## 1
Amino acid sequence: MVVDQLDGTDADRVFHALADATRRDIVLRVMHTELSVSALARCYPMSFAAVQKHVAVLTRAALVTKSRKGREQLVRADVTTLRRAARLLDAYERIWHERTTRIEDLLAEDDMEGERRQWLSSAHTRTPKRSH
């Protein structure tokens, strides 16, 4: 198992948060620069309170952090959590890849065994019979 990977509860929070298109878009917008919740609210056809709720879900999942600057709440992506989620998905991909490789190996072995049986069968019919 990969060290510094999301545990089950953290993974649930992260992938639940990312299951929503608006929340994924918020993470993308704050990936490179901090944005205030007010600035984010202007990007979506929903109320300020609704955007605040999306940011709260992202904050609980540790996908974004909030800080205060005067009266504004600034939101910034937490790339550490995104990297941990990526490592979890990479681990699943490796498991899947190992399984498909094992299936391919079994199929190849089966093909080789079939060819070997066919060769033995044809070799048997080609062997001249001894006369007494």
## 2
Amino acid sequence: MIKHLLSAADLDVATATEIHDTAVEMATVSGREVKKLPTLRGRTVVNLFYEDSTRTRTSFEVAAKRLSADVINFSAKGSSVEKGESLKDTAWTLQAMGADAVVIRHPASGAPHRLTGWVDGSVLNAGDGTHEHPTQALLDTFTMRQRLGRIAGLNVAIVGDVLHSRVARSNTLLLHTLGAKVTLVGPPTLVPGNFGALTPDVAISYDLDAVLPDADVVMMLRVQQERMGAAFFPSAREYSRRYGLDAARMRRMADHAIVMHPGPMNRGVEITSEAADSPRSTIVEQVTNGVSVRMACLYLMLGGRA
């Protein structure tokens, strides 16, 4: 098993499949009266978050606690970081505390990679800038396998703000490794042509309606206004008209096709409530599966024993 999880590119088919298979076993824990395993008792997991996050930080915290690890939540707000402490000094503090794993979210792409040089424990990338979010890709592919029974051979449309999306990058890399075909869809300002270099066979389209009939999975992305320093489309109404998923567009999809979204959603912009809350939607399942997949990652990377 790999020591660090920094990029979806770190995962080959065997490793990703091992994580998925282990997550199936971990999912059974949530159905028990006592939702805990003793696997990581005595181990320390630090959640080091330099950006606000509810979904991902909580998911990692629940995952570590269900494995009986000691969990330390470190937020940049109200910490020594606001007094000017560097990432390197923070890392040395965590090292001195004996952290066995550090889960890091950071606004700078590459920060998790730098951290691996300063701590002895495992480093898990929980999102770095616009670069990657590998555990999100693992939980998304796990959800596809759960709903559709396979990943190889699927046609996956990733739709929206690809330019600013670490989820899109990680999913594109992992889906290629696992044998799925990816089409990136959105306005040219948010899906630049150079994204075709991400993997050998990724396709790019600027016409959502043309892509929908052949898609097995439609993954909608949040429009990240906070990362936009300029106008990337005329208006939210225009964006929604051309790239938003609504009930009318869902009728163009195959009967078996599913709708995904990593959250949080901008309802009424990239997705309507009809689409988000429909039986085709896996959005709630993705949150549930996130805990199981992160339990599997921590269990395998820290060498736990059942």
## 3
Amino acid sequence: MTALLALLLAPLFSGTLKWLKARLTHRQGPSPLLEYRNLAKLGRKVWVAPYPTTPLFLLGPIMALLGALGALALLPVLPGLAFKGDFLLALYLLGLGRFFQMLAALDAGSAFGAQGSYREGVVTVLAEPGTLMALAGVVLLGEGFSLSGLPQLGVENSLVLLLALASLALALLAEGARMPVDDPTTHLELTMIHEAQLLDHSGPLLALYELAGSLKMLFYAGLMSLLLPGPKPLVFLGVVGAWILALAYLETYGVKLRYLRLPDFLSYNTLFGVLALLGAIWRF
């Protein structure tokens, strides 16, 4: 159910973000609903594959979308699956999709695809440990070692959960290829990370990547909403709205970090994750 809700919201999320960024620069901007039409238009086009490629080129966007949907299906924002250790499966479903995305970019044989895959791999390696430790910390405070038993923010666990929320927020910027980690609107191949992997894809395959990118950000927003008090669907929508505002402001007035500075930036993700895990173990 959560995956279906996110699938319906994903184009609205990216469309509203583009509209708000335009409004912040005093432009009228496209309609927030335009992304639905853009995806439908891409879906009707014929996709072209560079020669020679293998089935990996086709499998990459499909696995990226399925990985994001599978991870979202495990989030208990709406009733769904729940079992012990489901948070590990959710994170590694996202990782599986990312793995096939990098393989598809390498399969095309272009220099920029290979460069983007290398950089995406480095960002993933830097962001994954902190995210995993932050989630492990909040799961230890909860019940059943499952996403459905996560504690909600309160006086007794405020420090651990705030550290975990900070770690997840940085993970969203890295996973979603947003500033200051990456610039989703850049056309400079030498500075691109995520977009460089999509240059050889077109038509429905590009539409799958666009959807998967928005779904990954909704996954992290959903994770953060599980730690906040209140009815989960309403909290989820509130967190998504807050992230649209934050990203619009950040990408309008912020700048992308140099690639060599990313380890410094993402080290805060690891630091917050480690502190959240230690806080859960030592109960401070």
## 4
Amino acid sequence: MSAIKGVVVGHAGLAAALIGAVEQISGPASGLVAISNTDCDRGTLEERIRAAATPGPAIVFIDMPSGSCHFAAMRKIQSMESVRIVTGVNLAMLLEFIFHRDGGVDELAERLAQVGAHAVTAR
């Protein structure tokens, strides 16, 4: 198993729900950690994200760009060389992470963003 950690950060119960869906598909040992912004101030959220992502390497998945979770992650980990932030987390992205954690954290973050974007379609 890869040493790259996965931290899913989202509003309300979204992170836990996404991890629950991943574990229903992949099994209970996904290695993902859920962090919610419910009932915590910005400083508490920042500290929870930092604690879960360190020591790296880690990918921090954020539910949406420019939200409170994204700002908290950026503030605490943007200077950490072995931690990357990927926004717009979705189930396809998390499954790619669980089953294909190979490569460096930079390459993995780029691939996850591409997989997640490719999973969104309109017909």
